[in-house]
From TrEMBL:
Residues 4-129 form the CMP/dCMP-type deaminase domain. In the N-terminal section; belongs to the cytidine and deoxycytidylate deaminase family. Its cofactor is Zn(2+). It comes from Streptomyces hiroshimensis. Its EC number is 3.5.4.26, 1.1.1.193. This is Riboflavin biosynthesis protein RibD.
């Protein structure tokens, strides 16, 4: 059974893994801490980039660089060590070769090619235990696990609103509803995402840039504009070279004014495709998944957000609420196909934080997704 020291090491490994959010796709984020028999950390590491050394190899290298002998040590890892050779070798074999005596991991690897590392370790005589802080580790790897289990990217919808739920004033002005602290936090979310998605309405109203600022070494996310009629103009800020950009348009849209721009043509939404006349949300997510996108930050306006909610394609919601009232103006969420309180999308609040004068509320859909019918 895992010890308290191993649990502390797992928390550290989870924190290490989070440093690479937005940089490892299509791979998972993974952290590793190596402990000597007395529980002292000998080395630690995390998977920094796809194609680079895995967390276990990084931790072994760090221990070696510090002059430590890891024979008989324990490796604490957030994900079951891989059992296959891809761009790097199998981590299970690397641990065996190094003389690691015990491996404690949080989440079993669900992929067909990499699973089996625990069995390989056990067959080699390594004491192996799984499941330590599995929920916490899985939450940190939610994007990758969603992609593996559901074949689509994980979607986080972010919005900013006043306390009465308005995302802009009646005249359309929206800069700035929330504080500089909240806006800085949004750049953290962008840095952790593989793609940032907005709609054509947001593009016309705000001409957003969508690139990450003030995060050194951040991998710039793919900027995605959902623009059914290809209304984006060549001078839009999102078309500069600060980050890659993809314009998703309808199948028959005229894109002759966008030479050299990466464009994908998608079908219009059907009865179960989300949205009301816009592009099919599931088709969009399928295209992004095929491009290696594992996490999406949805920054679009109320109409696009309503399309994603209607399609059942929002996994987490982060709302930045400013202590202000407008009384009129667009709501943060548009028509999501919910016509009665009994069908409301119920959420579980997982975090509440103060950012300057604002509140940041994080929530996830409940397992039932809708409220029960009242008697």
């Amino acid at each position: 059974m895992a010890t308290a020291t191993e649990a502390d090491a797992m928390r550290r490994a989870i924190a290490l893994a989070a440093r690479a959010l937005g940089a490892t796709s299509p791979n998972p984020v993974v952290g590793c801490v190596i402990l000597d028999p007395q529980g002292t950390a000998l080395g630690e590491g995390w998977h920094r980039r796809a194609g680079g050394p895995h967390a276990e190899v990084e931790a072994l290298a760090a221990a070696s660089a510090a002059g430590h002998d890891v024979r008989g040590a324990t490796a604490v890892v957030t994900l079951e060590p891989c059992n296959h050779t891809g761009r790097t070798g199998p981590c299970a074999q690397a641990l065996i070769t190094a003389g690691i005596a015990r491996v404690v991991y949080a989440v079993a690897d669900p992929t067909d090619d990499a699973t089996g590392g625990a069995a390989t370790l056990a067959a080699a005589g390594v004491d192996t235990e799984g499941g330590l802080l599995a929920d916490e580790a899985a939450a940190g790897n939610a994007a990758w696990l969603t992609s593996v289990l559901h074949g689509r990217p994980f979607v986080l919808w972010k919005y900013a609103a006043t306390l009465d739920g308005r995302s802009a004033a009646a005249d359309g002005t929206s800069r700035w509803i929330t504080s500089a602290d909240s806006r800085a936090d949004v750049h953290r979310l962008r840095a952790e995402a593989d793609a940032v998605v907005v709609g054509s309405g947001t593009l016309r109203a705000d001409d957003p840039h969508l690139a990450v600022r003030d995060h050194e070494d951040a991998v710039q996310p793919l900027r995605v504009v959902v623009d059914t009629h290809a209304s984006v103009t060549p001078g839009a800020r999102v078309l500069d070279d600060a980050a890659p950009t993809l314009i998703a348009v309808g199948e028959h849209a005229d894109t002759t004014h966008l030479p050299g721009v990466d464009v994908v043509r998608l079908p219009r939404a059907g009865a179960d495709g989300g949205g009301h006349g816009g592009l099919d949300v599931h088709a969009l997510l399928g295209e992004l998944h095929a491009r290696g996108v594992r996490s999406v930050l949805l920054e679009g306006g109320p109409a696009l957000a309503g399309s994603f909610i209607s399609a059942g394609a929002v996994d987490r919601v982060v709302g930045y609420l400013a202590p202000a009232l407008l009384g009129a103006g667009p709501a943060a969420l548009g028509d999501a196909g919910i016509g009665t309180i009994a069908r409301a999308l119920r959420l579980e609040v997982t975090d509440v934080a103060r950012l300057g004068p604002d509140l940041r509320i994080t929530a996830v859909p409940t397992a039932s997704a809708t409220a029960p019918e009242e008697n």
